[in-house]
Amino acid sequence: MKKIVLASILMASSMANADVIDLDFGEVNLESEILSSSSLSFTSPAATFNDVSLYAQIVALTLYKDGGSTTSGSVADDIIINQGGNTTTTYAFTLYEDSEFTEVFSPNFDFSFNLFFYDIDGNRKFGNIYYDEVTVYTPSVVEYTTTTALTISENSDGSITASGKGTNAVDGQDGLDSFNQDQADVAASFTFTNTSTVVFDYTIVNTLNSGHRNLLIDANNLSFDNFDTTTTDVTTVSEPGMAGLLLVGLGLLGLRRRKAIK
Predict the structure, then answer these.
(1) pTM for the complete prediction?
(2) Rg (CA), the chain
């Protein structure tokens, strides 16, 4: 418990002094790159920060099953992940300083950025057995409405899960630039400080059939400014197993790029 309290104090102190990176996923259309039948990544110029161009990349670190309906990539300037039902895929979002994705952003000053996960909802008829879940492992502060329809759970390893179990279907899969109350209540905003890689799971629970669902991620257009909110800390420290997954995912991406050059 003392470790968690200390982590919270240090995180709050760093956030207060951090330079905020204003990411933008709308500069170019994010086109999905299929690495193999089981892997997915997409990349984009994301920001110019202190005269440094930053590039964002998402890589599937574990088995990725294409939902087969909507193309993963972008919608309304936001990232969209379309994933097959009854699956859990671990993703890594990373900021780089070069378009070849070899130099991870690592400045000598405090920095932070925000990722807004939204449309974490259930099926319109079967919200108790067909729904989305997002679990974030990277230390951060998660903000959500005081009236949230999500179940926000702190796991034994310090990660946080936002579950849409029992929620109604809410419009959002086509992208949003503002929230109504229902949309805000199935969203969660994560602020990351002094880290360039964010590791998270996207899980689709569906006991009916395979199906598919979508997760959307916004960088800077959405906010909870008009809603009452509360926060919880994600205190997980990256474990060796997660680091190994990250290396495997990045290795697959490098292999695909080398093949493309030949």
Answers:
(1) 0.86
(2) 18
- Of the pLDDT bands very low, low, confident and very high (cuts 50, 70, 90), residue 44 is confident
Q: What are the distances in angstroms from CA 97 to CA 43, 110, 179?
A: 12, 16, 32
Give the residue from 173, 171, 172, 175 showing the smallest Cα distance to 77. Answer: 175
**With helix as H, strand as E and coil as C, how does 183-201 read?**
HHCCCEEEEEECCCEEEEE
Rounded to whole angstroms, the Cα distance separating 40 from 33 reads 6
- Domains in the chain (CATH in brackets) are 2-261 (2.60.530)
pLDDT band at residue 29 under the 50/70/90 scheme = low
Half-sphere exposure of 29 (CA within 13 A, CB side): 6
CB neighbourhood size of 50 (10 A): 11
